[in-house]
Write a structure and sequence with these properties.
globular, Aspartate Aminotransferase, domain 1, 2 domains, Aspartate Aminotransferase, domain 2, about 400 residues, alpha/beta, four-stranded mixed β-sheet, 14 strands, binds pyridoxal-5'-phosphate
Length: about 400
Amino acid sequence: MTGSDLMQSLATRVAERDRAGLLRRARTVDAARSVHVQIDGRELLNFCSNDYLGLAQDKRIIKALQKAANESGIGSTAAHLVCGHRREHAQLEDALCEWTGREAALLFSSGWLANLGAMQALLARDAVCVQDKLNHASLLDAAQLADATLKRYPHGNAEGAARQLAGAKERPALLATDGVFSMDGDVAPLRELAALCKRENVALMVDDAHGLGVLGTHGTGSVSEAGLSQTDVPILMATLGKALGCMGAFVAGSRALIEGLTQFARTFVYTTAMPPALAAATCEAARIARTEDWRREKLQSLVARFRQGAAQLGLPLPESRTAIQPIVLGDTAHTVAASRTLEDHGFLVTAIRPPTVPQGKARLRVTLSAAHSEGDVDRLLDALTLVTEDTG
Ligand SMILES: *Cc1c(COP(=O)(O)O)cnc(C)c1O
């Protein structure tokens, strides 16, 4: 293949995606004020961000960022192992350990990089990695990029996981699952999976991107809510860009795990450390997320209000007690039209289409935030009657 063949083949795939109505485009948000965003000159009420606790614009966190930036500048100037690891990073790692009840933690610049780095460090070539079919793309890709053998089990099905493990007894294996599934909002059967992993001597890894800050006592996440310890879930990963309203991620676990990742996680070793001011801001975000229980209580009450209203409207709402409340409409064109209708009425709810979700499972991924008011939720429910009328 020549260079122009490559470009041609890329353009062909784009054209195919376009014909299927699946082309993706970033919308430019011109201004954001809490849950209100301005796009194309119009103000929209945002129901698709991952700012579950309403911290992305918290004044105290902004102040922490500014103060640290004044003291330590913008860039960390190097990877952690060169000279990029600042006091602010060390403090954030300590705070995350303490919050999640883990011995040690390692910062990564994003959740993608954390999953990639952890799996590449842990999995030998051809090791078997068993995963939930609906795991986040970064976990599924991480196993494949590590040259492991990826075996997927039916969503949320611990027996399916057991069957996959049974076929792979001879080789060391890792079982990885989202704690809260990013497109469905349901929680993995963590206790069953932990029991299975213990029985089969398999390491369990949980990606708690949507659980940290939202579930568990003081927001400690889905793993602690399930009553599981570092022994049960030796590899805990979570992101800092969702409920914490910042950016970045970490892996937490035993000192031995973190020592291993420090040596062998290439996405940690060979990348610039996040800005120290961002680490300082995230430290403040973690403090607030941990101590302000009212944010979780408010979120839960909005979730209950939304689910009750949506049930009255007869909307197809899968089981979810988290901030993620998808309305699975199925048909892609219909879902895109529904998203447009909502936008015409002042609501931003992006349509999530294949291949992000399986064929026939397109959805409006509604997400709620502690920054929403009850009135916001009621207004969204009113607008959703238009969507049900379309469906009817
Ligand atoms: C968002 C997400 C990631 C990726 O995290 P980033 O910090 O956005 O790269 C990983 N896993 C899950 C389950 C996620 O939802």
